[in-house]
Amino acid sequence: MWIGILLIYLGTHSPYTTDVTQRLASSSMQHWLGTDALGRDFLARLILAGVISFLFSGVTVLLTATVGTVLGLFAGYYGGLLKRIIHRIEESLIIFPDTVLALVLAGLLGAGINSLVLAILLIKWVSYARLTETIVSSTKQSEYIWMARVNGLSDAMIVRRHLLWTVLRQVRVLMSVDIGKIILFLSAFSYIGLGVQPPVPEWGAMLNEARPYFQAAPRFMIWPGLCIVLTVSASMWWNRRLQQQTAKKGV
Amino acid sequence: MIQLHHVTVTAPTKPLLHAITVDFPANQFICLIGASGSGKTLLLKHLLGLVPETLSVGGTVTFAEGEDWVRGREIGYIPQHYQQSFVPFLTIKETMRDLCRAHHVAYDKEQTESLLCSFRLDIDLLDRLPHQLSGGQLQRMAIILAVFLKPRLILADELTTALDPVATRQLLDWLRNYQQQTAATVLFVTHELTHALHYADTLYIMKEGTIIDAVTPETIHASRHPYTQALYTNRHL
User: Fold this and answer.
1) Do A165 and B70 touch (CB under 8 A)?
2) Candidate from A143, A157, A165 with C-beta closest to B102
3) B67 falls in which pLDDT band (50, 70, 90)?
4) Touching check for B77 and chain A: CB below 8 Å?
């Protein structure tokens, strides 16, 4: 219901329309959370920033998980060169913290959301590939996989029907934590100007825009900050729930 | 029917099966008997073409008239550790349907029900996950899965190891009847000579990775091989 109300609000209030006569206006019936320094509706921008953050994070996680899982399935099932390559890449990536590496890549690829998606994809696919490869390598030794071979099931069928299910149960746990992490990434990168570019709203970028008004209108910092904290906490809570579920049911 | 010619399976340090040359006859209940570690299960794996990659394989295996028999369709396998052989997150019916899909065969509901009926198993069990079935039900399901597509060769590995005498009798009676009705060939691996003598048409004795003797229940007492004689003499111990 709340999401519905917020979306209706977004539909009726443009996050881009400026009105200099309404600069830094306080909360009112017309502008529930007031307006920003350019007179734009603050709540509308906050909502759109949330939609963008979720879309960006969702698409990036989905893309990363797909690439990593597919490569991990091949590497785990067939082993060989691909498995060795994944291990070497993972070892070399461990040396650098994710954020530093993303910063370098995003800097090299240029500012913007597409560059950030690509940078995160390049860094994160390997953790999905490694997770999948480890699960597949151990699961393929199971008696039931051997039995599937005995029963004449093709490799494609074994991977699709038997291994993918086991892998996806673990991958979704990793995805749930990455949703929050990537929202945090996006906010951090937008804050320093490497993520979402103006005038498109984003929580990190909004924090940056609010810096000059920190004392006069602290709400411009509090609301986006609160949104980031709550979203990341929700992602962590969801992750814990999934972990508990997975542990309860076993793989 | 199944001809093995100079079959060898070798581990990096020692031979596991060596120089097995044998012709298993068709439409028979054949028992492969031998002590633990004699290579019985490995021979079955070799017939299935699933010897681990770490072992090297030599010799030839020829099925009837040089046909290329397909695992799961022409060759059915009843595993020793049947509890772990089921996909834990698929129902029995889903596993059966996968088997049909793999071999491009339509799922035969009536045949499945008749097989379940012959084992006095409830049809509802098909919609359950493996962990929702008892050990005995799972074992019978493992047999149903092995014979489900009417294979010409059924390989059964130490089927009765964990069973009480009554259940053993029921299971072997069923398998023997099934073999006679369908004229399939059953290759039954066991270390129980009494079972072999009761059910087998032919017994092949394995020792230290090779087949050392081939006898029938009627001729075993006259075997000259000392190991066969020892097995026969000590069969009731």
Assistant:
1) no
2) A157
3) low
4) yes
Beta carbons of B87 and A143 less than 8 Å apart:
no
Query: Does A211 reach chain B within 8 Å, measured CB to CB?
Result: no
Q: What is the tens place of the pLDDT at every residue in B39-48?
A: 999 999 999 8
Token pair 């054949």: residue: B30
Q: Which runs of E-coded beta strand occur in chain B?
A: 2-10, 15-24, 29-34, 56-62, 75-78, 153-157, 185-190, 202-207, 210-215
Residue A250: the pLDDT is 57
Question: Does B54 touch chain A if contact means CB atoms closer than 8 Å?
Answer: no
Q: Does B98 touch chain A (CB under 8 A)?
A: yes
Cα B75 to Cα A152: distance, rounded to the nearest angstrom: 9
Residue of B nearest to A164 (CA): B89
CA A114 → CA A60, A93, A228, B34, distances in Å? 10, 21, 21, 67
Q: What is the pTM of this model?
A: 0.81
* Strand ranges (E), B35-83: 56-62, 75-78
The residue behind tokens 């020692």 is B14
Residue type, A191: Y
Query: For A147, which residue in chain B has the nearest alpha carbon?
Result: B85
Q: How far apart are CA B113 and CA A115, in angstroms?
A: 59
Strands B2-10 vs B15-24: parallel, antiparallel or unpaired: antiparallel
pLDDT of the residue at A251: 45
- State residue B91's pLDDT score: 95
Query: Looking up tokens 């009112």, which residue turns up?
Result: A28
The ipTM of this complex is: 0.87
